[in-house]
Amino acid sequence: MTKADIVEYIYDKIGFSKKESSEIVDLVFETIKEALAKSEKIKISGFGNFNIKSKKERKGRNPQTGEEIKISARRVLSFKCSQVLKDTLNEKAK
Per residue in 6-52, pLDDT tens? Predict the structure, then answer.
């Protein structure tokens, strides 16, 4: 599913214009990005949690040459789905 698909879904289900639907989707994603940039946790009931984890600098290896390299410290996005979402996914798999 793409962002355009989400906009189309909102347009079909709620009846907002496509422009309004697009603005809503953009606003939601922008709000999430801003919160994550501030290292805030995002908790969406019935869906899951997004949070930022910090990884320390570490040693790694170039798989082609075997040369040891330094992997820089960075922040990564982590997502843990809710039990409701897990149950929904497992029902569909049956």
Answer: 999 999 999 889 999 999 999 999 999 999 999 999 999 999 999 99
The CATH number of residue 84's host domain is 4.10.520.10
Beta partners for residue 58, in sequence order: 71
Instruction: In whole angstroms, give the CA distance from residue 73 to residue 93.
Output: 38
Q: What pTM did the predictor assign?
A: 0.76
CA distance 21 to 54: 34
Residues 7 and 44 in one domain: no
CB 14 within 8 A of CB 23: no
SS3 13: helix
User: In the chain, at which residue ranges do the beta strands (DSSP E only) sit?
Assistant: 42-44, 48-55, 58-61, 68-71, 74-81
